[in-house]
Amino acid sequence: MSTVAAWVRETADSQGLPFLIIDKVSAQVVAYDRQGRLLGAAPALLGLARGDISPPGIGQRPLSAITPEDRITPAGRFLAATGENLGGKAILWIDYDAALSLHPVITTRAADRRLQRLATTTADDNRISYGCVNVPVKFFDEIVQPAFKGTVSVVYILPEVRSLAEVFFTAPRAVTSASGRAVKP
Questions:
Q1: How confident is the model at residue 90 (pLDDT cuts 50, 70, 90)?
Q2: Would you tell me how many other CB atoms lie within 10 Å of the CB of residue 88?
Q3: 160 or 180, which is more confident?
Q4: I need a labelling partner for 127 at 20 to 30 A (CA). Which of 43, 73, 136, 149 fits?
């Protein structure tokens, strides 16, 4: 994660926007301000399946049609913005078309033990979501909301299968969608 943060600062890849780095291997989210200064870090819950590219059309499927092997948190560089989900709750849209977001942990299903998973010291039990990134409520309310509300931001989701060079350090730079396709910023 520190390699990507240093690269973002050295190359000004975030273009003066606040940014997040999400490390799927360690199940961590780290937030930075416009100058690349650390704002805070938190554990995260991620997609159940391992992989770096979401299946085509994932954002148009109902949750009931998303199989366990398709529940991937994709790797890449995304332009993100705060907004609301269908229930009117605040979220950070990472890739709206792919229905990929970062939001406060959802605790409606007690059997999922999401709060307990966030509290463990290992990342082994942090794979449970449909692909979205769940963070502690306090981190979302005190770090993400104030730093990212009302502005576009950049989210870097580190790969777990592909290499960092393949995902980030190649030219020309492109913003990607969750499907791995290049999109216009």
A1: very high
A2: 6
A3: 160
A4: 149
